[in-house]
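Translate structure to sequence.
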């Protein structure tokens, strides 16, 4: 297994003792045209790519791995869908991405599947939602990463929610994402040439999310719903931009395909994943 750098394991486990590490600067290696070959030289049977953001990056890796790897698993994003139309969104719905990140990732996905169709290059793409887990700040009930929102809910203070709070977010615990990649490896024949959503079983509305988190803290929800133009004046420019991106997408994705073809069954609901993450933030003084 190749990991990006020698580092402390996210979770301790005896298996890490059998992992060989080496450190590559992907950007620098790609600029010299050597990244793909460096990965191919490991002799890996399967490669999991978590950090590919452009078609050029994908091209360099695929060209080096042709005929030398039995499975390339690419980490995509549910942002490839753009805004929701029919929900829950399935993998088969047309892609209408917007924003730099979503457009670039959709372009990579399209090119990778062209390689599968043209030459059966062994590709599988997994699309995670909003990643959470201990040590991470989750997307909050306002649709941004400001941890003060959780602190306000914890203390029973008022939280302003943009619009009517009916926009959605769709979290997934990092452990469930890791399990999905393992399942795709184990079910290689079924997974080849396919994409799969990797999210919790159900999305959350911002309104319901805020209420449930207040209840988790044994507080009555004190929520005020504010029109967008007024709401954004009360937060930082960064938070407003992040919220705008999330409520414009309002993801709500189906996991039926991953369930039926891979046996994917997330251990965490959206709320359970967020609550575990927020507990860690409280224990480590980030939320107080």
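Result:
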């Amino acid at each position: 297994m190749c990991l990006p750098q020698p580092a402390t394991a996210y979770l301790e486990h005896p298996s890490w003792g059998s992992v060989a590490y080496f450190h590559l600067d992907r950007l620098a290696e790609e600029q010299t045209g050597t990244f793909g070959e460096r990965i191919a030289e490991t002799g890996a049977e399967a490669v999991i790519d978590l950090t590919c953001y452009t078609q050029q990056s994908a091209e360099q890796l695929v060209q080096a791995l042709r005929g030398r790897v039995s499975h390339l698993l690419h980490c995509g994003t549910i942002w490839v869908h753009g805004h929701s139309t029919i929900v829950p969104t399935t993998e088969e719905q047309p892609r209408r991405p917007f924003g730099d990140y979503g457009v670039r990732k959709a372009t990579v996905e399209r090119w990778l599947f062209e390689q599968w169709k043209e030459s059966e290059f062994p590709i599988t793409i997994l699309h995670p939602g909003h990643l959470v887990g201990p040590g991470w700040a989750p997307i909050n009930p306002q649709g941004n990463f400001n941890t003060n929102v959780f602190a306000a809910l914890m203390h029973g203070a008022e939280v302003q929610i943009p619009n009517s709070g009916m926009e959605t977010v769709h979290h997934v615990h990092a452990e469930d994402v890791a399990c999905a990649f393992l399942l795709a490896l184990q079910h290689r024949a079924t997974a080849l040439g396919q994409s799969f959503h990797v999210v919790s079983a159900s999305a959350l509305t911002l309104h319901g999310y805020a209420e449930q988190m207040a209840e988790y803290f044994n507080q009555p929800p004190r929520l005020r719903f504010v029109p967008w133009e007024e709401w954004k004046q009360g937060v930082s420019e960064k938070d407003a931009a992040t919220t705008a991106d999330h409520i414009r997408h309002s993801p709500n994705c189906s996991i039926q395909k991953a369930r039926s073809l891979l046996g994917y069954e997330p251990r965490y609901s959206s709320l359970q994943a967020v609550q575990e993450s927020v507990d860690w933030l409280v224990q480590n003084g980030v939320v107080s």
